[in-house]
Amino acid sequence: MSSVLDQFETWKNFLKERVSQGKNLGLSEDTISNLAYEIGSFLDERVDPKNDEQAVIKQLWDVGDESDRHTIAKLMVKLAEKS
Question: Which superkingdom, per the lineage (predicted)?
Fold first, then answer.
């Protein structure tokens, strides 16, 4: 069974759809970024990277402090919006 996490482009499109839904519901950029941080924390603790891009993001997440991780989450939201 294929997962949204298997292909990085599929993951970015999934994130783009969720960000769009959040904005349509009136969520602020900060709220969306905080949700992305929570998702990142969940994935870091419970999901093994499925591709090279996710492995790099996990390595950056693991070496970063909380502030760095919030920045990574915010950048992932921006990346999803630009795709």
Answer: Bacteria
